[in-house]
Design goal:
Layout lengths: L2 H32 L5 H37 L7 H10 L1 H20 L2 E2 L2 E2 L2 H16 L12 H31 L7 H34 L2 H6 L1 H36 L8 H29 L7
Antiparallel strand pairs: 1-2
C-alpha cells in the first residue's frame, strides 16, 4: 500500500473521527434539551439520539485508532501490517502517542457511558461531557498548537475551537437528520418543547460561531504567520477554503435564524399540527444545505490537521 493511499486513508479516518465527535456533542445537547419536557414523543426522539450517540462514540473511537495506526505506518515508512512495532514505540515514547492514548481511553469511557440509559435519556451526562472535553484537550495537545508547549495558550485556544466547531456541526447534523424529521410528527402538547428546542439550537449555534471565528482567527494567523503563506502555501489555501465554507454556512444559519425560525416558532406555538407546514419545510431545506457545507468544513479541518505548517517542510 503506497504512501499516497495511506495518506488518503488517514485523511478519511481523521474526517470521520471529527464527524463522530461532532455528532456526539450534537446528540448529547439535543437529548438534554428535549428531556426538559418528558413525554412519549420526546422519549421516542431521545431513543434515536441515544442510538446515534452509541454509533458515533464507537465510530469516533475506531477512526481515532485507525488514524493513529496509519500515522505510525507513514512515519516508519512501513505498511499497515508491519506498523505494529512503530505503533508501540509511538504510544510509549512520544507526546503524540501519550495524547492519543489518553484520548482513546476517555473515548472508551464515553462508549461505555453511552450504553447506560435512565428512562428515555442518557445517564451520567456530566461524566460524558467531562470525558469529551478531555478527548478534545488530548487532541489539541497532539496537534500543531503543542509546539508552544503542553497546555499552552495555543492549545487551550485550539481546544475551544474544536469544541465550538463540534457543537455547531453536530447540532446541525443531528437536527437535520434526526430531530427535524420527527418534529413534523410532534403532537400539539409537545409543540412547545419543539419550539424550545429550535430556539436552543439557534442560540447555541450562534454562540459556537462566535467562538469558532475568534479562535479560528487566532489559530489561522499563528499557523500561516505571514500574509504570503496564506496565499502561497497549501496550508494557507486550505485555511482560506475553510473560512469561505464557514462564511457560507454562517450565512445559511443567519437566514434561518432571522427569516425562517420566527415563522416556524409561531407555527409551533399555535398548537396547529405542522405536518405540512411551509415554515418547517423551508427551515429544514436551508438546514440540509448548511449540513452539507459543514461536512465540507470538517473535511477541510481534517486536511489542516494532517498538513505541515508553512515553513516546516
Amino acid at each position: 500500500m503506497n504512501e499516497g493511499l495511506l495518506g488518503i486513508l488517514r485523511l478519511a479516518a481523521v474526517a470521520l473521527q471529527n464527524v463522530g465527535f461532532a455528532v456526539l456533542v450534537g446528540a448529547l445537547l439535543s437529548d438534554q434539551w428535549l428531556a426538559r419536557r418528558p413525554s412519549p414523543w420526546q422519549a421516542r426522539v431521545s431513543y434515536r439520539l441515544v442510538m446515534i450517540l452509541r454509533i458515533a462514540s464507537v465510530g469516533a473511537l475506531m477512526c481515532s485508532m485507525l488514524a493513529f495506526w496509519i500515522h505510525c505506518a507513514l512515519m516508519s515508512e512501513s505498511t499497515l501490517m508491519e506498523a505494529g512495532p512503530a505503533v508501540w514505540s509511538m504510544l510509549w515514547e512520544t507526546g503524540f502517542g501519550h495524547g492519543s492514548l489518553v484520548g482513546a481511553v476517555l473515548m472508551l469511557f464515553v462508549v461505555s457511558f453511552s450504553f447506560l440509559r435512565s428512562g428515555g435519556t442518557v445517564r451520567f451526562p456530566l461524566a460524558i461531557w467531562l470525558a469529551l472535553a478531555g478527548v478534545a484537550l488530548a487532541r489539541s495537545n497532539g496537534g500543531h498548537p503543542v509546539d508552544a508547549g503542553l497546555f499552552s495558550l495555543p492549545v487551550w485556544v485550539d481546544w475551544l475551537h474544536l469544541l465550538a466547531i463540534s457543537a455547531w456541526v453536530g447540532l446541525v447534523l443531528v437536527t437535520t437528520y434526526v430531530v427535524l424529521p420527527r418534529l413534523s410528527e410532534v403532537p400539539g402538547s409537545d409543540q412547545t418543547n419543539g419550539a424550545d428546542f429550535v430556539k436552543s439550537l439557534s442560540d447555541a449555534a450562534t454562540f459556537a460561531l462566535v467562538a469558532l471565528v475568534s479562535t479560528g482567527a487566532y489559530n489561522g494567523w499563528r499557523g500561516v504567520n505571514t500574509p504570503a503563506n496564506l496565499l502561497e502555501s497549501t496550508y494557507g489555501q486550505v485555511l482560506l477554503l475553510k473560512l469561505l465554507l464557514v462564511l457560507i454556512a454562517a450565512a445559511l444559519g443567519g437566514h434561518n435564524r432571522f427569516f425562517e425560525m420566527p415563522k416556524l416558532l409561531v407555527s409551533l406555538k399555535s398548537g396547529v399540527p405542522i405536518t405540512t407546514a411551509t415554515p418547517l419545510k423551508r427551515f429544514a431545506a436551508v438546514l440540509h444545505i448548511e449540513s452539507v457545507v459543514l461536512a465540507a468544513v470538517i473535511v477541510a479541518a481534517a486536511v489542516l490537521v494532517s498538513s505541515p505548517l508553512p515553513g516546516t517542510t
